[in-house]
From TrEMBL:
Presence of the UniProt keyword Hydrolase in the record: yes
EC number: 3.5.2.14
Biological classification of the source: Bacteria, Pseudomonadati, Pseudomonadota, Candidatius Mariprofundia, Mariprofundales
Name the UniProt record assigns to this protein: N-methylhydantoinase A
EC category: hydrolase
Family matches, as InterPro entries: Hydant_A_N, Hydantoinase_A, Oxoprolinase-like
Annotated TM spans: none
Residue intervals of the Hydantoinase/oxoprolinase N-terminal domain: 3-168
Keywords for the protein's UniProt record, in alphabetical order: Hydrolase
Origin: domain of life: Bacteria
Length: 651
């Protein structure tokens, strides 16, 4: 049996697949120890962990970075570069702001150390390391009580001998992260920052995964990484920074699978959970980037291109110094949670607003078992609305509108701001709260189609089951594309990467995808294109990609900067049995009163059959989420269990 588990800030989601049927489950997350929610969920599902192939989306690395709660880390580089992580690129988020926020460095200068030795830009040693410094290094690590050490030397991606020598001088105990093992690419700051983050969170991730393996002892434990594949837990512990987008990546992997199933190649994904909202754009495949950042520090690793904002069901409503209503980014989380959870929350949240407005029925049980306190939410909005001169329902409606505008803005970032017309795409909504705002967001962006997939409330956990086992490898080496030996050099480089992949993923039958980063000579940025055919074909592909991205091409020589290899194990497409058709008329199970709308029918998703046609306004209820179909929209169920919404003509 396969169990996908996605640990979110508010809920931990479970999807169990036994080869014939699928079950969904939710538990309140336990942020202080995420494994507790997983243990409780497995127990409540009546499972024996030893029978499970467990695929996990973890937030341990993400939370440690966002909250700056990693371990004490020593950063080692070349003499003269000790302030690399502190200086960074000297960029400012707001160029013309007269009152910029103070930038808090990720590391103190006392925790940075420069050592002798230098490799030049050709990978040739021009100054050897000084082994006499290694004794002082060991003393500093011991006296400073460092739990991790990050090593980033100049041009280690061309010649890693100095980093290996330094590693041999580090005493046993601390977690050691070497830049040529984390990201063997040019750009010292990005490489150094990524290596530092890997060391900063590595011991925490290792400890968590070892605890999970020891406590649960599943047949296999895999972890979803940020580029949309899964990796063995042991490898994940050594490459912790790759888990920065572990959970959201699962949703995007599942979205691609659903798109192929429905024949929808163009999707904008909208994943709204309890704490945050993640959005992305898919054109056949989800876009990837190697220029991400989290909490202001870059991560130079292949990652699915996901835009995240602090807007979720737990986002708190508050009033700023100017007396204007705001929503988020602070969240109520799992504890105490929104007011309606009855766990001590006092400040109203988006979930409370949906409950007050009737979009979440008062009789609903969150995660299938948690009763909600509508009266408590109503009282909270009475207090909140008094400051604004609004009644509780009007105040709740205002909170929803503000939250939806934040989310619509995020959707515009990945579509309109990148030159895409949202009307060419279908909006794929998931997450526990996604269905409550699907129609409003589609209306805001002028979109006509919405997909609410099977298991929408636990969709990222479903993606854990759809991910293939894969690893990403790269190596920077400038190669002039028109040199006669460019292709042999490139083939040699990929040969080395394939050997590295085979050693790391030992015992697996691997397939490979090859890509290269290319740029015009003199440029400071590059585009990634597939490697195929001759060099001339790759140059043509790069020229076309440059024209599409920037609207022009240049009459300059082209160079190859970085070789990129994805090694993966091919696996069959995850599929579930089709729903059986029924001639019975789909009837409401109940009726709900929606503020500003009136009485609307309420349907159970488990009783919807292929072909059923429901016109809004209406509610569709399931254990893991709620779908609000507003006026002007019609819903049709597919044989796969997905719900398709279309805007009616005339609206």
């Amino acid at each position: 049996m396969f169990l996908g588990v996605d640990t979110g800030g508010t809920f931990t989601d479970f999807v169990l697949f036994d080869g014939a049927s699928v079950r969904f489950h939710k538990e309140l997350s336990t942020p202080e120890n995420p494994s507790l929610a997983i243990e409780r969920g497995i127990q409540n599902l009546g499972l024996n962990a030893r029978d499970l192939h467990l695929i996990h989306g973890s937030t341990v690395a993400t939370n440690a970075i966002l909250e700056r709660k990693g371990v004490k880390t020593l950063f080692i580089t070349n003499k003269g570069l000790e302030d690399l992580l502190i200086i960074g690129r000297q960029t400012r988020p707001e160029l013309y702001s007269l009152t910029p926020d103070e930038r808090v460095p990720w590391i103190h200068s006392d925790d940075c150390m420069g050592l002798s030795g230098r490799i030049n830009a050709d990978g040739v040693e021009i100054e050897p390391t000084n082994r006499h410094e290694f004794a002082a290094l060991a003393n500093i690590i011991e006296k400073g009580d460092y739990k991790a050490v990050a090593v980033c030397q100049l041009f280690s991606f061309l010649n890693n001998s100095h980093e290996k020598e330094i590693a041999s001088g580090i005493p046993d105990g601390p977690f050691v992260s070497l830049s040529h093992e984390v990201v063997a690419e040019y750009r010292e700051y990005e490489r150094g920052a990524t290596t530092f983050l890997n060391a900063y969170v590595g011991p925490l991730v290792q400890r968590y995964l070892k605890h999970l393996e020891h406590t649960l002892a599943p047949k296999h434990l895999f972890v979803m990484h940020s580029s949309g594949g899964v990796m063995a837990a042991e490898a994940a512990g050594c490459q912790a920074v790759k888990l920065a987008l572990s959970g959201p990546a699962g949703g995007l992997v599942a979205a691609q699978a659903i798109g192929r199933q429905l024949g929808e190649s163009k999707l904008i994904t909208f994943d709204m959970g309890g704490t945050s909202t993640d959005v992305s754009l898919i054109r056949g495949e989800a876009a990837k980037t190697t220029e991400s950042e989290i909490a202001g520090i870059p991560i130079a690793l292949p990652m699915l291109d996901i835009h995240t904002i602090g807007a979720g069901g737990g986002s708190l409503a508050w009033i700023d110094e100017a007396g204007l209503p705001q929503v988020g980014p602070e969240s109520a989380g799992a504890s105490p949670g929104p007011v309606c959870y009855g766990l001590g929350g006092q400040t109203p949240a988006v979930t409370d607003a949906n409950l007050v407005l009737g979009r979440i029925p008062p009789t609903a049980k969150l995660a299938g078992s948690m009763l909600l306190d509508r009266e408590a939410a109503l009282v909270a909005f009475e207090k909140y609305g008094e400051t604004l001169g609004l009644g509780p329902e009007s105040a709740a409606e205002a909170v929803i509108r503000i939250a939806e505008e934040h989310m619509a803005g995020a959707l515009r970032v990945v579509s309109v701001q990148r030159g895409h017309n949202p009307d060419d795409f279908a909006l794929l909504c998931f997450g526990g709260a996604g269905g409550l705002h699907a129609c409003a967001l589609a209306d805001a962006l002028g979109m006509r189609r919405v997909v609410v997939p099977l298991a929408s409330g636990a969709f990222s956990a479903l993606g854990m089951l759809a991910g293939r086992q894969q690893g990403d490898y790269s190596r920077s080496k400038p190669i002039a594309a028109l040199d006669g030996d460019a292709m042999p050099q490139l083939q040699h480089l990929f040969g080395e990467l394939e050997q590295e992949a085979a050693a790391e993923m030992e015992g697996l039958t691997l397939q490979f995808e090859r890509r290269v980063d290319m740029r015009y000579m003199g440029q400071g940025f590059q585009l990634t294109v597939p490697m195929h055919g001759e060099i001339s074909a790759m140059i043509e592909g790069f020229t076309a990609a440059h024209l599409k991205a920037y609207g022009h091409s240049l009459d300059r020589p082209v160079e190859i900067v970085t070789a990129r290899l994805t090694a993966f194990v091919e696996r069959p497409e995850l599929s579930f049995p089709n729903l059986s058709a029924s001639e019975k008329e789909t009837k409401p199970c109940d009726f709900s009163t929606i503020y500003g709308v009136g009485e609307v029918p309420q349907y159970l998703r488990s009783e919807l059959r292929p072909g059923c046609d429901i016109a809004g306004p209406a509610l569709v209820i399931e254990e893991t989420s709620t779908l609000w179909i507003s006026a002007g929209w019609r819903m049709n169920a597919t044989t796969f269990g997905h719900l398709l919404l279309e805007r009616c003509h005339g609206f």
